[in-house]
Design brief:
Elements lengths: L14 H25 L3 E12 L2 E7 L13 H14 L5 E7 L3 E8 L2 H10 L11 H12 L7 E7 L10 H10 L2 E8 L4 E7 L5 E7 L4 H10 L4 E4 L2 H14 L3 E12 L1 H22 L5
Helix pairs in contact: 1-8, 2-3, 2-7, 4-5, 5-6
Length: about 300
């Protein structure tokens, strides 16, 4: 029978059975898609790492004599050394680090510790004039070695920084170096100061501070002897950039040993997808047999 338009049958519905017949294709398509993904054997990766570290025990032996206030470094040698040492400590989270200061005598500003906040605070408080003036290199090195003598670490290091010549103390620097060497301690020595003359702050008779040029005298022969005796190198820093480079080189040479063991396990994820596809296929067949009453 021909109809001129569809208006008379627009409101007629095919019912629930008609809806199911037209949506069987979606169930089958989803089931086939799930089976394809399941056959591709999707997996999840579960990894774990076991990390063991062997830290290095390091003591910074820092000269705080009045000559370290010379302003050939910005703002002066002492503060420049403390700033570079701060960056060095921050970059070595696995190491125990201590701080020894020396001038006419020496003392431990901070024992070796893994609490780097403590030693960084100690560095901030370092200033010249808190002990008798002078340069007791032997005393500074001996105190640093004493901090490390009972260490169980396989790697023990002293970084000794000074800008002068040994002129104080009851321990000869070479004797202190021999003690450090016998204890298996490597002593990196750093001479700080420009070549020739350096501006040094002095007070006149009226109490006013002015700069006076002072000759830079570093006992490089002694510092090189100490470093070579303990199996490492002597460095000369004549500006802030060179001092930073030296600490970076020492940082590279004295890397913390890290051992990493990796374990990887894969879990199969196809089973839930296959079950979901099977359920959809069963639903489609039940619809055909029980509701639509049509054999597949």
């Amino acid at each position: 029978m021909a109809f001129s338009n569809l208006n008379p049958i627009k409101g007629i519905s095919g019912g629930f059975r008609s809806y199911l017949i037209h949506n069987q294709l979606y169930l089958r398509s989803i089931a086939i898609a799930l089976l394809i993904v399941a056959m591709a054997r999707p997996q999840t990766k579960m990894s774990s790492e076991k990390v063991s570290t062997e830290g290095i025990d390091i003591v910074l032996a820092l000269d705080i004599s009045s000559s370290m206030l010379a302003q050939d470094f910005e703002p002066n040698r002492l503060r420049a050394a403390c700033d570079v040492a701060t960056d060095f400590i921050t970059g070595r989270p696995n190491d125990r680090i201590g701080l020894v200061v020396f001038a006419g005598e020496s003392f431990t500003q901070c024992p070796i510790t893994t609490d780097h906040k403590v030693i960084l605070e100690a560095l901030k408080k370092v200033e010249s004039g808190i002990i008798e003036d002078g340069t007791a290199i032997g005393m500074g090195l001996a105190t640093a070695a004493d901090r490390l003598k009972d260490s169980d670490s396989k790697s023990k290091v002293v970084i000794l920084l000074t800008d002068g010549e040994n002129n104080q103390g009851i321990i000869d620097p070479k004797t202190a170096a021999e003690i450090a060497s016998s204890l298996g301690i490597r002593v990196y020595t750093i001479g700080v100061g420009t070549e020739g003359m350096a501006p040094y702050p002095v007070k006149d008779r009226f109490g006013r501070t002015r700069l006076q040029s002072v000759k830079v005298t570093i006992d490089e022969e002694l510092l090189e002897y100490i470093a070579n005796l303990t199996g490492v190198s002597y460095y000369r820093a004549n500006n802030e950039g060179k001092l930073k480079d030296i600490f970076e080189e020492i940082d590279h040479l004295e890397k913390t040993r890290i051992e990493v063991a990796s374990f990887t396990r894969y879990a199969e994820e196809f089973f839930p997808l296959a079950i979901a596809a099977l359920v959809l296929i069963v639903i489609e067949q039940l619809l055909n047999l029980l509701i639509i009453r049509r054999l597949p």
